Amino acid sequence: MGAEPQECLPEQPARRERGRRRLLWVPLTGLTALVLAGAALRLAGRAGPADLVWAAATVAALVPAAWAVLRDLWRRRFGVDVIAVLALAGALVVREYLAGAVIAVMLATGRALEAYARQRATRDLRALLARAPRTARRRGPDGTIEVVPLDRVRVGDALLVGPGDVVPVDGRVDEPVTLDESVVTGESRLVHRAAGEQVASGVVNAGAGFPMRAVKDAAASTYAGIVRLAEEASAHRAPMVRLADRYAAAFVPFTLVLAGLAWLLSGEFVRAVAVLVVATPCPLLLATPIAIVSGLSRTARRGVLVRDGASLELLGRARTLLVDKTGTLTAGRPRAAETVAAPGGDRDEVLRLAASVEQLSPHVLARALVRQARDRGLRLAEPRDVTEEPGRGVRGRVEGRTVRVGQLDGDLPDWAERARSRADLAGHSVVWVGGDAGPLGAILLEDPVRPDARRTVRRLREAGLRRIVMVTGDRPDTAEQVARTVGVDDVLARCSPAEKVDRVRAEADRAVTVMVGDGVNDAPALAEAHVGVAMGATGATASADVADAVLTVDRLDRLADAVEIARYARRVAVQSATVGMGLAGLAMLAAAAGRLPPVAGAFLQEGIDVLVILNALRALRGGLRHRDLPAGTRELLTTYAGQHDRVRDVLADLRDAADLLATRPDDPTCLPALRATHRRLTGEVLPHDTAEEQRLYPALADPLGGTGATATTSRAHVEIRRLTDRIGAHLAQTGAGPVRPDQRTDLLATLYGLAAVLRLHLDQEDEEYYALSPPAPG
After folding, report:
1. What phi and psi, each to the nearest 5 degrees, are found at residue 166?
2. CA dist., res. 218 & res. 230, Å (int)
3. Chain centroid to CA 678: how far?
4. Judging by DSSP bridges, how do beta strands 513-517 and 531-534 pair with one another?
5. For residue 296, which of 230, 203, 242 has the smallest C-alpha distance?
6. Fewer CB under 10 Å: which end of the chain, C or N?
7. Residue 456: count of CB within 10 angstroms of its CB
8. Please, which residues have CB within 8 angstroms of residue 277's CB and are 6 or more apart in sequence?
């Protein structure tokens, strides 16, 4: 049974949207027509009808403006709108009808420009709403496919996503797929997901149709949360009201006092009207909201949805950042940092057996092992007789042999003691893999620091954040390691949700504070901060519901983008307001002195308004401290970043070969292990380094500001080759025999030294280069 193409935006709402856009210009068109008609009558010598037409234009603008002011006063709000109302009313009283009409056109022009800028600035938020899926193709028990409303999709339903369809709910794919995630994450490149991976709702199928299994219903899915946030953001009044009213607290009394003094000292009420005319506060009413709404749009395009303009304003004033560790500074998903095999065993076989028996487990560690094995291209077998004991691990049969994954009972052999000691020193978790004859190996798991974390912390400091604190429930030693790696100012370990709230409250008492987190336990702290930011791409719906901003892409560097954009938008808004009020202040003094009649003042104020509004539109561009990379450079980064996992595997070979040489130099497997490691160095690591030198580093020269930016890592390539050649020279001297005693010291120093240099080099490349365009999360 076929299915209708999935509907994204019905034609009827689209027509209504176009109709609303046309209506925006109706008041301006009508008032302009009245002013021109009055001018034509005046030129024809009919002054009375001309004044009548201009008076009508003034009244047409005065009535809705006065109603808005009265409504605000009823709600105990007092803002800058009152000056516009007084100016229009004063023009009518002193019979300066042309001045009133010009003020009316000025207000209509400003509001039309504001509406246009708001539409332009919020098109990304509207695009999210427009692309919201409404139906899904569901496969029935008999194999037929039916199109059902989205609210009828349940967890576990088998769905079919056709070419070009929007993925309706969060699900898990059964085969490799190609997706366009640009609407949700801001990433322009296509993303490939392997079989078994989870895909988020709202992304677009950019390849052939594929089946998937729903893991969340529509209300709990990723896109639904984003849409809710977008609806809230677009429903708010044009932002910056609080900033505008802060200026109004001083500007409005000053205007009224100056107008009163001009009238009192001169005895001419027309001077008071002239002061009110040039004080009409379009810079506050219009220019500042345009700048902030433009900032909202730009953060949305960078993958950060900010709830409203007040939140963006606070983000632009932030001085303190509190950040959760797990899932924010770290990946939040464990990975196998190292696999240790028992003497005579094979690391890949240990990982393959563990992943095979863990395929049926829902545990997060099990998914990490399965994902790691598939990434390495290992063939997983179907497990039999699988049982799971909570807190102890999983047991099953793989290809006729018993495999246990989890805790290890009894005394540990020497190799296992060394593996556990190594894990403790590095802050890793250990998963033991055993069989009927005893332990087969160990898998050391880590929650790796995000490659972009340190660079992002530096950029946040450059953007004006003076204090960055990491809060985590993890062990102090692990927390300290991560804190030193990313460069935060302070760390609070073993922190409960209540303690996080207390710390956020204490920091917020001293400065405007931002809190970033991704888990349910972070939700109270996010709600307590001035600006709570949720890592929404990880599916943390509870924290996203209380947050003021959500990162829809799993990239921490976008937070730095958002802070820079917020500061720039706020700076432009304040500049527009300050310059506009300064120019208006000079004009007001001239009007109070009788040097500027109301009509001339109205035209002058029109020019001031256009100037500050055009300045406010600068917030649609600029402010970011870094440039986006060219597409070709991004592709190179993706290519070579994908090779880093294989290069890191060589680190384990180096460590194993060095340990074997140090503890059992006469073992028959020692020399073959050294030769195998050298072959991997010359066959995988050195060609990778050469390709980076020839292709990647030249491409990075322009974005990084010159070839000097890659000089340090380029020098590391030279050292890696030198140490590799030294190992090769030792092996050539050894020949077919064992390693000579006089070679061991230098060879051990070379192996351990190369391991340290290679590890540092890979971390530096990840931080300095690959963090510029981090790969999409798996």
Report:
1. -85, 130
2. 16
3. 41
4. parallel
5. 230
6. N
7. 24
8. 87, 90, 91, 96, 99, 103, 591, 598, 601, 602, 605
Active-site annotation holds for 324: yes
Q: Which of 116, 382, 80 is nearest to 254 (CA)?
A: 80
Mean pLDDT of 9-32: 63
DSSP strand E in 410-454: where?
Answer: 429-435, 438-446
**Count of H-run helices and E-run strands, the chain:** 29, 22
DSSP 307-340: S-HHHHHHHHH--EEEEEIIIIIB-SS-EEEEEE
Buried b / exposed e along 168-207 (16+ C-beta atoms within 10 A):
bbbbebeeebebbbbbbbbbeeebebeebbbbbbbbbbbe
- Residue burial 96-120, b: 16+ Cβ < 10 Å; e: rest: bbbbbbbbbbbbbbbbbbbbebbbe
How many whole angstroms separate alpha carbon 17 and alpha carbon 22?
9
* Dist CA 511 CA 653 (whole Å): 49
User: Which pair of structure tokens corresponds to residue 531?
Assistant: 């600006």
Range from 166-175, 289-298, 460-469 carrying the lowest mean pLDDT: 289-298
Judge contact between 757 and 720, C-beta under 8 A: yes
Task: Given the residues 170, 180, 324, 554, select the one marked as catalytic.
Answer: 324
3 pLDDT band, cuts 50/70/90, is very low
Nearest CA among 613, 507, 489, 576 for reference residue 243: 576
Query: What dihedral angle (degrees, nearest 10) is formed by the CA atoms of 556, 558, 560, 561?
Result: 170
Q: Are 170 and 199 in contact (CB under 8 A)?
A: yes
User: 719, exposed or middle or buried, with CB in 10 Å at 0-12, 13-18, 19+?
Assistant: middle
Tokens at 136, concatenated: 């899904």
- What is the phi/psi pair of residue 470, to 5°? -100, 130
Answer whether 52's CB lies under 8 Å from 256's CB: no
Task: Decide if pLDDT at 18 tops 70.
Answer: no
- Could you report how far apart the first and last alpha carbons of the chain are, in Å? 33
**What are the chain's domains?**
17-123+234-297+566-620 (no CATH), 133-226 (2.70.150.10), 335-446 (3.40.1110.10), 631-772 (1.20.120)
What is the distance, to the nearest Å, from the Cα of residue 350 to the centroid of all Cα atoms in its chain?
37
At 68, list the tokens. Answer: 């808005």
- What mean pLDDT comes out for the span 734-754? 87
Q: Which candidate, 72, 70, 68, 65, places its Cα nearest to that of 87? A: 65
**Cβ-Cβ contacts under 8 Å for 674 (sequence gap 6 or more):** 657, 661, 727, 731, 739, 747
User: Alpha-carbon distance 225 to 218, whole Å?
Assistant: 10
Residues 6+ apart with CB under 8 A from 663: none
Token pair, residue 700, equals 């990075």
**Do 463 and 456 contact (CB within 8 A), yes or no?**
no
Q: pLDDT value at position 231?
A: 54
Both tokens of 465, joined, read 């954040």
